[in-house]
Amino acid sequence: MASTSDYDSLTKEEREIRDKEDRAREIAEQAALPYTWTQELGELDVVIPVPKGTRAKDLVVVLQKKKLSVGLKGQDQILGGELCREIKVEDSTWTLQDNQAVLVHLEKLNQQQWWENVLTHHPKIDTRKIEPGNSKLSDLDGETRGMVEKMMFDNQQKQMGKPTSDEMKKIEALKKFQAAHPEMDFSNAKIS
C-alpha cells in the first residue's frame, strides 16, 4: 500500500491508474478466499461453500464476540480465526442454504464502522472506497475487469504450479524465436 503523501504527489491520471490497480488486486485477493462476503454499516454476511449434500449436523460453527470458525465434523476447518471487529453474538446467526453453502450473518457491535476484512489474517479491502452495494465482476469497466480476470487466472495457475499469463507469453515468444532460428541450440536455455 502506497503512503498517502506518495499518492498525493501523483497526477490525476496516475491516481486513476493506481486506484484501478488497487481495486483489481483487492477483488482478486477477495476472490481467492474460501468464502464471499458483503457488508452494510451494521451487519455482515459471509457465504461459505460446502460439499453438496452437507447437512446442518455435519457442521461445526463457532460464533463468538471476536471469533468465527466454520468446518465439517472430523475435518480441517474451512475458515477460522479472529474477527476484524466485535459482533453481537446473540443477534448473529448461521444457516445452511440448499445443503451446499453456510450463510453466516454477523451483527456488528459498532454499527457505524466498515470492516476491512472478516478475519484479521485475511487480505484487507480499502474501506475509504466502499460503495454501498456489492460490486460484481460484471459491473466493472472493461479494463478493470480484464485486470481482475488476469490476476484471478494467474492466482489459479500459481496454485496449480502452472505458468502465469506473463510466463506463458515469454514461452510463446521463445518458441517463435526458436522456430525462426533453427540453426541455434536452445537445449540449455532458461526462461527468466
From TrEMBL:
This is Nuclear movement protein nudC. The keyword Cytoplasm applies. InterPro entries: CS_dom (IPR007052), HSP20-like_chaperone (IPR008978), NudC_fam (IPR037898). GO terms for cellular component: cytoplasm. Coiled coil: none annotated. The keyword Heme does not apply. Gene3D superfamilies: 2.60.40.790. Pfam families: CS. Residues 9-23 have a biased composition (Basic and acidic residues). PROSITE patterns: CS (PS51203). Required for nuclear movement. May interact between microtubules and nuclei and/or may be involved in the generation of force used to move nuclei during interphase. Residues 1-23 are annotated as: Disordered. It comes from the Eukaryota. Residues 30-119 form the CS domain. Its main location: cytoplasm. It is found in: Cytoplasm. Keywords: Cytoplasm. GO terms for molecular function: unfolded protein binding. One of its GO terms (biological process) is protein folding.
